[in-house]
Amino acid sequence: MAGKGYADPEVFAALERANRLVTETASVGTPVHFFVLYGLWASNHNAGAIAAALEHASNLLSIAQSQPSSGPLLIGHRILAYSLILRGDYPAALAHFETAASLHRPDEHRDSAIHYGQDIGASAFVQLSWALWHRGYPDQSARAAEHALAYSRQLGHAHTLAHALYNAGMAAVFARDVAPVHAYGNDCVALASEHGFTQWGAFGRILQGWGDAQQGETTTGIARIRDGLAAAEATGARSGTPYHLALLAEALALAGKIEEGLAALDEALAKVAVSGAKGWDAEIHRLRGELTGRLPDPDPAKVEDSFRTAVAIAREQGTRGYELRAGTSLARLWAEQGRRGEARDLLAPVYAWFTEGFDTADLKEAKALLDELT
Fold this sequence. Notes:
Structural class: mainly alpha
């Protein structure tokens, strides 16, 4: 997994044989059974087989509930939560991540990285940061990511740290916090190069590329994201492709390549249709609206339709982070059309819900627009 990626055919073959041996040796419910079940989940999840991954996660959690050790239960809640994020059920994902984090016992789980590929506590906290951001708690999200990184560095386990760097980098992408994205991407690529972590090297380059583009280095950024996408595809990793394509579309738009950006978003939605990884749909549709509005002869109705779709999906999936961002895009469009009252009525209640994160880019942008509308 570390060398070739979680979804490499060789990994699948080894896990399927291991799973048969669990049955043949009457090892169901033993620690080794959980290592195999986790591996099957990880391979299916990374391959973009979301329905199969959810089934493996539910199966592991069900068996773990009869175990005296807390480790398998933590793993069960964490992997179910991660698959729920990809499917687009953010409230349920947060509940399972919080349970997983509450079960972490550093002394008891000290050897977990040997059996699961990365430390189970670091994984729980760094991915909890994703769910916290989406549910509208950006400050708590940043703290969870920082905790996971500090713990990973303390452990001195390279694969755990690579995993934590990418996931913390993605949490910073959600928050549009460019400096840490660049720093975590650089560290992730350096660590992956040193140890031969193919998948983390690919994902790290995507983080680097997004950071480059946001800082004005669009040509370098686009090249790095494309390189990362191709390298990830070569490992069989497909679950993150829709969102990574959305990051490419953002970079292309910053370079003025609007048609190419829209093509990347179309490809992202096509990948979603195959995998079922719908958790990024709101942002993909919002970006489609933003890029459509920048065409030489934009159709305002199409722009509005994309933003409305983004808001509706964000509400349905329970991602307040994406709801605020999509609501800001739609409110700005309406304000430009003179529909100031509608714009304020849409955005004000979404913004009012938040109790933290007021120095983050999205909340500052929403507040500035609301100030203009009052």
